[in-house]
């Protein structure tokens, strides 16, 4: 099939305004009579609030209002579990909980007033370790709950005892992963305008999920959804991070905007962002695997525990993805998996690109290399003996059919791209110098979109104007991933128009239909289908009209590059003339598109079913150099092969791969939010290490295309799979190079040299 | 809130007048430490009343390497050091140290004088200058005095600079004869990285013996110091008799003697030993090559 717009690396539709600096971000917005607000956050990870004294702050210059939990109609919100407070009422449960806020004429005046608020606390004992949180008799962080368990997902297949009895070798290993920050370039920002154009409040800002923010604000204000309007701005990165934390910020600003009857702007500094934003879950993982001496896996038993911090946030769903994918893409008759989330008084954890997969893949793909070594087998051979193939049955009992199971293909293509075999052999020879090289790989399968988490549907709206120009609206959001461009390409492809006829509109909850959150690498797949659906409705309407007008059968006509053609490629009309005529004839040239994913199923008690309707497959390979004298680790090259179904925009797919590999590299070798007794140490990028351009390896990005019957033009997912594989590939390469297996992330200087981490103190 | 008045000096004389007459003044050169600390509202600024911008003082700029004597103005940026052909040829380890600092943006602004006056334990400029036995020239309204770089730094973030003094320039004798150098650094990433450990080795060889040697720590000890044990082990030794591993071992022992067992010692002990071993190895190889 020859495409005109799809499957081509067209320029991003939002590139011009971004590279020229014209794009307006949340912090750029200014409204007449706007106030600025700041939040007083507690330093105590767990304390009772005895008293909050605001009188002095209220008298400070420029102050227009000082607020506490008492001023909030409904103080509790949360997407899955309503356990998060807008402002702490009686008790703070993490260092960074807001206790009061000030709206003032200037940011400096708001900050000065915060210093005058006196809060009296009674410090309480806290829980900072998962092991402590799990104890039966430990103190309860949310006293109204039975214990500190946020969630438990079991999965049972076959009989692991039987499976282990069949094994010639059984390996038991423990792994752990760390807390990390999203590190989006733009800290959180919102502006809330009260009583705006027939809405109670209008909310602008750096918002990943406008509908989730709308729901949270409506809950807090006890308002109807229609009274709350959310308009998304350009967003400077999110990676799953601008959901609950921005909803809380928007709710706070909304309370102040309504009380003061003036627009209220809030912009976090980087330090404030580090303090209050949720982060990636640290996991403790126990794996037990059995295999025959021929390398066939017989059983796997897994326990994964996640630190949820003080709030449930996304933990129930993050750990659900973990339970589905915990074995990795390997055929197993006997599986017993349990994933858990626990409350602690640590910073809370939520959605971050990968969403419960990077942790388990680090463990399970490290484990496969450890098993291969025990068996005296190559890592590739062991994997190929066990990987999912067409019609394989997964751990949850799902038959992988209806789409191409391409694990072997992604493995082979990644290996070819980086010359894996030759390097593996070369680096397996003795290396006399301190600097030793190694190469390692990891593979994954990943369920596309939400799966059994929630209703999986999206809507869009396309309006064709009289002059043939086209406005496209979607309920899913551009978060930097390239959604506007991809959706424009799909609309242009179906309507047979040029891309520059399309005006892509920002999400505005008043006009665009609720399509759920822009998460789970679902936008191209679910949202793309809804765009295609809307465009197809309009194309049919136009062709029906044209068929009548030109007295030709509809299937003898086609729209292409802004013209109507007949079968012999004669131009019959301009697209814009046709649409003008239709509108003059009173024909509606707007259409909603809707797409709901195919049926899925999940039995929460047994942990079985068809949790996702399709999957993507990926393989990443890392070539590293380990300085065995100093612990320095250099990632020299990486290959990343990902089956995306079909690349709507191959350049954009490669961009996603490069970015995901880099984020994965940071997760693997340097990033860690250090927390000591609930306190974050180091709240800016001079303490928190993320990779620089000099740490970036050469990356061979390989796009594998096996069009999916359920994807728009066959397209599936790419955003998250790119980030989940690097850590295991790098750890495996380090083990290959140095002979040392590191089972905890990150693989920093200390772990690489002496095998364990030391508490960092930086330079000072 | 830290509040201060910003003053700008247009000549060294004016700057020294201001320092003599006003109290509680912080000098602003490249600003890469000062502005960050001001942003953090560091409590050390609670007492300041003035920030004195000295960044345009021509008297403090320039690199001047004569046959024997060298003068480096305190406002010389790390980028200036890297780009200087004379530095690259005669003192490559200074260029290496400068290259390892921060990022392009930071190297374009940050000055060697600022790095010394800030005196972080991990400051990368100290070890090459101490190896050269360099001195700082401290100017005040009453005149100038010289102090060895080693004595200039008292403790982390503490120097011998008096409140009315400015660090004007750095002076040292250029090494003569056959000399070899090595600069080593370990950081947590490839750029914008604070040194975990760094060190400079500078040695002169006469015939087949070590005639002069300076192995100086950076970041490994609270203040940069020469490794006395390592230096005495190497000095006057025949090149053929030198065991780089032994030099490394001595350095690590000496470091622990200075710092005591700290949280970082289990890492720093083997890593420092390895860096010293490598520096000595480089030195021996270079000396052998130029025979």
From TrEMBL, chain A:
Q: Which residues form a coiled coil?
A: none
UniProt-listed SUPFAM superfamilies: CO dehydrogenase molybdoprotein N-domain-like (SSF54665), Molybdenum cofactor-binding domain (SSF56003)
User: Aldehyde oxidase/xanthine dehydrogenase a/b hammerhead domain: from which residue to which, for each copy?
Assistant: 20-125
Source domain of life: Bacteria
In alphabetical order, the GO MF annotations are:
iron ion binding; oxidoreductase activity
Return the protein name: Xanthine dehydrogenase family protein molybdopterin-binding subunit
Source species, please? Halanaerobium polyolivorans
* A Pfam family this chain is assigned to: MoCoBD_2
Gene3D superfamilies in the cross-refs:
Aldehyde oxidase/xanthine dehydrogenase, a/b hammerhead, Aldehyde oxidase/xanthine dehydrogenase, molybdopterin binding domain
From TrEMBL, chain B:
> Per its record, how is this protein called by name?
FAD binding domain-containing protein
InterPro entries recorded: CO_DH_flav_C, CO_DH_flav_C_dom_sf, Diverse_Substr_Oxidored, FAD-bd_PCMH, FAD-bd_PCMH-like_sf, FAD-bd_PCMH_sub1, FAD-bd_PCMH_sub2, Mopterin_DH_FAD-bd
Which superkingdom heads the taxonomic lineage of this protein's source? Bacteria
Which GO terms fall under molecular function for this chain's record? FAD binding; oxidoreductase activity
Task: Please state every residue range assigned to the domain named FAD-binding PCMH-type.
Answer: 1-177
Question: What are the entry keywords?
Answer: FAD, Flavoprotein, Oxidoreductase
